[in-house]
Design goal:
The protein has 360 residues and is of the alpha/beta class. Helix content is 40%, strand content 17%. The chain binds pyridoxal-5'-phosphate (PLP).
Length: 360
């Protein structure tokens, strides 16, 4: 199994050789000064992705996949007397509901069909009718369908009604615009191995310091206690063993990210690749799952060609060296997805469509 696969799934992504090589550095104890230096560099590097000032924002690093950061954010920030308003139009909105349920956090949900645009009117009605709501949780890029949710609109409502905004930016951080100040974002959680082109194993929350400083309740979780990590990391420590080698790789990936021009350059590269993929698919008569509204630049959901199962398409493309991604749940029967994050070039997409043409 040494054949290089082009990963067109929404994370983990293909990484560059320099990021892969960064894994091979010396073994290190997470209680030594060298680790503090590395951890601090990565924490600063994460703030630098959106040019955030250290005085007002901080980043907290966790060993775990993206969901660990989502769960840490929600369970550490919403207090026992708080209530979460969840905006759901896909699987990841449902996951936040599952997290709230598992931890006994009060919530109410504005539900939409998968892929549907978030409905400003219904969100505002929910906010008006339930003054107990203290926080709004939204998914930025709903990876289920490729819908980019309108954070500008949500942030306006959050500001008008005085709610704290918590964002799942796992598949957008580093690849889409995230306007922390203007949108008054409280916290965004994300992962090393999507738009940042790192290795799976580290996730993080970028958050306003005041939100962490305000936490005054018993943690709901020992391992996912954001405030506990924050306190330790501010002192250069860590409450638990971090995945040191993956941190090396993320440090390198963040350097590479800046050298390549930061989030704007990455967004532009993704946007062009996604556009190219959509055009090439259209030429083969493959229809997009969502046709209008704001679409992410990192992924496109398509309808499976008539009479073709996902498995057939997947297996043929895999044999040619490409991993595509199924639709989730019921959508698995009608949808497939192509993500374009990671170390991927236009020539890879050309080869993908040679293989696609053979099977369609
Ligand atoms: C990938 C993803 C996650 C987290 O998935 P993990 O498998 O835990 O890394 C969460 N939210 C969104 C929107 C995602 O795309």
């Amino acid at each position: 199994m040494d054949k290089k696969m082009i990963l067109l799934n929404p994370g983990p992504v293909n990484v560059s050789e320099r990021v892969r090589r960064a894994l091979m550095q010396s073994d290190m104890c997470h209680r030594e000064n060298e680790f503090s230096v590395l951890q601090e560099a990565v924490r600063q590097g994460l703030l630098a992705v959106y040019g955030l000032p250290k005085a007002r924002y901080t980043s907290v690093i966790l060993t775990g996949s993206g969901t660990a950061a989502v769960e840490a954010m929600v369970t550490s920030i919403v207090p026992p007397n708080g209530k979460l308003l969840m905006l759901k139009n896909g699987v990841y909105g449902e996951r936040i509901a599952a997290i709230a349920k598992a931890h006994g956090i009060a919530f109410t949900m504005v539900e939409h069909e998968w892929g549907q645009e978030l409905d400003r009117y219904r969100i505002e009605e929910a906010l008006k009718s339930d003054p107990a709501i203290s926080h709004i949780a939204a998914i930025h890029h709903e990876t289920t369908t490729g819908r980019l949710n309108d954070l500008g609109m949500i942030s306006e409502l959050a500001r008008t009604y005085g709610k704290v905004l918590l964002i799942d930016g796992v598949s957008s951080f580093g690849g889409e615009e995230l306007n922390f100040d203007e949108w008054n974002i409280g916290a965004v959680c994300a992962t090393a191995n999507k738009c940042l082109h790192g290795i799976p194993g580290i996730s993080f929350v970028v958050v306003r310091r005041e939100l962490l400083e305000q936490i005054d309740f018993q943690p709901r979780s020992v391992y996912l206690d954001l405030r506990g990590y924050y306190r330790e990391q501010e002192r250069g420590g860590t409450p638990f063993t971090q995945t040191v080698q993956v941190l090396y790789a993320l440090d390198e990936a963040l350097r590479e990210f800046q050298e390549q021009g930061g989030w704007r350059a990455r967004h532009e590269k993704y946007r062009q690749l996604a556009q190219y993929i959509r055009t090439r698919a259209q030429e083969l008569g493959i229809k997009m799952y969502l046709e209008e509204g704001m679409l992410a630049s990192t992924l496109t959901a398509f309808r499976l060609p008539h009479g073709m199962s996902y498995q057939t398409l997947h297996d043929h493309l895999k044999a040619a060296g490409f991993i595509i991604y199924a639709g989730q749940g019921e959508a698995g029967k009608v949808m497939f997805r192509i993500a374009n994050m990671g170390e991927i070039e236009k020539t890879d997409i050309d080869r993908l469509f040679v293989a696609m043409q053979e099977v369609v």
